[in-house]
Amino acid sequence: MSNPENKADITTPAFSRPLLVWFDQHGRKTLPWQQNRNPYRIWLSEVMLQQTQVDTVIPYYLRFLDSFPDIISLAQAHHDEVMNHWAGLGYYARARNLHKAAKVICENHDGLFPENFEDVLALPGIGRSTAGAILAFSNGQRHPILDGNVKRVLTRFFAIPGPPSKKSIENQLWELADRLTPENRIADYTQAIMDLGATLCTRSKPLCPNCPVAANCQALHQNAVHRFPEPKARSARTQKTTRMLVIQNLTQQILLIKRPPTGIWGGLWSLPQIDAPEADIRRWSLDNLGLEISVQTEMKSLRHSFTHFDLTIEPIVCRPQANSSMIMDADYFLWYNPEIDIGAGVPAAVERIFKRQMQNSD
């Protein structure tokens, strides 16, 4: 293997030209959001793709667009309807911010997605990399991007030690990303460097022999590709346990509670949740729901993982003792039939509990 150029000597063409040649032959060009450069569609795809795989995003993206084809329809939609379309995709703050930003665009930009970088960056839920990607794809504006894939490519290409999450290293990566971004074919280059990280320069088992910029890759030259990017020191994952009440009435409807607008599962409809292990179930239900219940049975616990912790859920099947109609009309209570889609966004973990309960009821 020939020695790569010194990282200080790598020019924009030495990186971008072979990358674009590779992209012309192997890059992804048929994804749904690539068929229409409307900035709303690009924005939606970029938000959905944050920490989520392409194959997972596609059906959500298509369904979301079918219901909310433009910014105005999204801004005018009810919060529950938006959250229902996001249910199962995770990281629900993305959906809340998307909805908020649509309203801001209607109020401050006449319903038209802004073209100024600072205006885009000011929208809820949009950071520097996402703003740059949206404007690069929709308008061909030159802005560097630095998502997870690009960070991995650059830390390997320049063999940069230390975790990319460290501020000084992130600043260095931004400088490199800006320097390597060419003046022309901005949209293609932006997609190309994303595709390079997603398909060749992957986290595990990178396909270095197929890489168009391998000749100058410092990590490859050092036979140390798997050392980069260096992970940050991890503390032990937090383990949490909670109980969820599956309160089912005589018509097989299950009581749901609307969660607070922020935090885990913010804005979704979920089962009543008891985090205090010492709490008496009946007393808790009476105090918090105004509902007398009888405990029927405990279901097998299930585990659900979040970004920073694992949650063990212990579902408990209950029956309401008193007339349940007293909570029917409350804004944050809902009697829900899991077999009928009424447009209520429900967390994936709760959907799993529903499936188990329905199997047990058969």
Quick one: biggest sheet?
5 strands, mixed
Helix content: 40-55%
Total beta strands: 8
Number of domains: 2
Give the SSE string.
Answer: HHHHHHHHHHHHEEEEHEEEEH
Reported CATH architecture of the largest domain: Orthogonal Bundle
Number of helices: 14
Question: Please, could you describe this protein's structure?
Answer:
- This protein is an alpha+beta fold and 362 residues long.
- It folds into 2 domains: 9-227, Hypothetical protein, domain 2 (Endonuclease III, domain 1, Orthogonal Bundle); 238-361, Nucleoside Triphosphate Pyrophosphohydrolase.
- The chain is built from 14 helices and 8 strands.
- The protein has helices spanning 12-26, 39-48, 54-67, 71-76, 79-86, 93-108, 117-121, 128-139, 148-157, 167-180, 186-200, 218-221, 281-289, 348-361; strands at residues 238-247, 254-258, 269-270, 273-274, 293-298, 302-305, 309-320, 333-336.
- The strands form 2 sheets. Strands 1, 4, 5, 6 and 7 form a 5-stranded mixed β-sheet that branches. It has a 3-stranded antiparallel β-sheet with strand order 3-2-8, with no helix packed on it.
- β6 (302-305) and β7 (309-320) form a beta hairpin.
- The mean pLDDT is 90.
